[in-house]
Structure prediction request, 197 residues.
Amino acid sequence: MDDSPQVRIIGPGLRVFFDIALYLSVSPDNGQSVLVALALGTNLGDREANFRAAITMLNRAAQIHVELASAALETDPVGLTDQPKFLNGVALLRTTLSPLEFLHTCHAIERGLGRIRDTEQRWGPRTIDLDVLIYGDLILNDPGLTLPHPRMLDREFVLAPLASIAPEIVIPGSDLTVSAALSGLRNGANRARHKES
Prediction:
């Protein structure tokens, strides 16, 4: 019996590598937590284990509750193409941390999984990459964090998994739902929108 992961093609260059589609639970919301969309990527070591460990560590972190994680998609690298394929996915979380506190927690998890940001090549291989895509409806232009993520409208490997778990979330600063942004990317409309703005 073959126990290798099943791969399903869902779009050009996007294949479901393993379908965890984790439903971890919905935390009671006291009205003070913020919904966050977080991208996860890994292409070094045991990619599936890295992905699962990051989700587990996020869920165990203080003031963070993972509600849902997408399937992991195997994708070709972007930017620096001479490296292993990535597993990419998205998680929806609730947090009472500020955006920068949340980012620092993500960086600590990356370090815990062996990532060394100071020495790595931009868009190069990594054990784990955690990118904050959306933090509630916040629009932020801080030197350390831009929200929503400045390149999310150009990345199918981000929009496809996010659309699979939260298609109707509106991307802050736009009138686009995630599913509309994915459709726009696939037909070239997102590029036209960037030129207009």
Observations:
- The two ends are 54 Å apart (CA to CA).
